[in-house]
Design a protein that fits this description.
With 457 residues, the protein is mainly α. The protein contains 22 helices and no strands. 61% of the residues lie in helices and 0% in strands. Helix 11 runs antiparallel to helix 12, helix 12 runs antiparallel to helix 13 and helix 12 packs parallel to helix 14.
Length: 457
Amino acid sequence: MSTLESTLDILHIPSEYARPSALEDLDTQAILNEWKRRTGKVLRELKSIIEDRKDDSERKSERGLEIDEEAELVFCVAPFLDDEAGWTTPESRSLADDILPASPTVPLISYILKNKIKSLFSPSPHPYLSRTTARALPRAAGGPGAAQDYYEGQLWKEYPGLGQVLHWCIEHIPTEKYEELWPLVIPPTMTLLDDYEEQFKIRGVYAISCMLKNVPPELLKRTGLDGLLRKSLSATVALQSAPLLEASLTTLVDLIKATSTLGTEAYFDQLCELIGESIVNDTWFYAYDKPDVLVASVKALVPIIEALQLGSARFLNALIPQLTHPLRPVPMQAPNTALQIASLRALNALIVHCAPRMHEWKVTIVDGIARCWVDRFVDEREAKPDTDREQLKQLLQDAMCALALACPSVETEIAQVAQLDRDLFRELFCRVPVAARGVVATPRRPCRDPVSASESG
């Protein structure tokens, strides 16, 4: 065994990381922690080995590695890029990024998909995909029971980090090569997406999100994968898991934008379904007592609103009361800062894109913002420095600024609120570009675009 092989052998992710029950055992934890501690040193050694290699053969890559050696290196090192995995550290992620090829060739990607990934997923083929072409099937191959049978014998689950290897391959596939690699890419990706365990399903969502950046939309529609993806992602949203909900809804927006023409009925109806059914009727109705799920659903609203633009006005009766509700203090209950921040970002997007309708809601919005300001910033001297607190303050100011630009008549309400306590509301209204600001203070800096401002925050 060469030095390279022995070094890579140490970097194989222990299978215990794929079994949550195994991680509860103290002895197993000790063994895994020792292995994790060693990986930094091993990755540094591997980096030195790669740097010492020279290109001495036409079959080798520019880094002096045979294609099978390069493929094994990617298979072992790519999992360390995962910033959500328990086996990585900031150092290991940085080293992995340095070690992996920056611009991998299509033959290398094909070799990894065919010889490293396909064999692990082949024993449990996806029932709704053709085994030869990876086209979507109208019904499950093997009958209704096949949809459950493929959960058995899942060899790929013995290889933690496999989803990150697949993600790395997808990230580097050129647009013009997707059709060639389609039968190798889609089966493992859909298997991850439709798995029953959240830790694997989220990897599938991330892989699809990455793929949508470069995949030809015509290929998605021609192979029927657009419909299959829409069905799978919608089912994932219905699980009401916070990480899955936000990632799946955002990916669904990207899918709709890729496969539907802007301005068409299909485009509008699919986006409306995400708000009306997935968020308002399902998530907000059934997950009202799950704060993390509510935060995720409100975060996911922003890209949908930005895609619908003025079409979002259809849902103002449902959205504005819900988004202003977390801003109002509740006696004997601590405010949910994460939900307030997410709600203000979504509210800012609504104000910007539905400006012609804001005159109907200006009182509700000003009321919510002013109450939140009084509750959170009534005495700045007692407050400790807090990044979230400063972000909340910025977003409240942005919301008032956006509302004043969208609905100049709000100066009446601003003046009324300012007269209640000029000193308290001075900073809230200091950037409002309306006549009422003269009652409060001269703006210290110009009003920014609240949507881009909230994103930068």
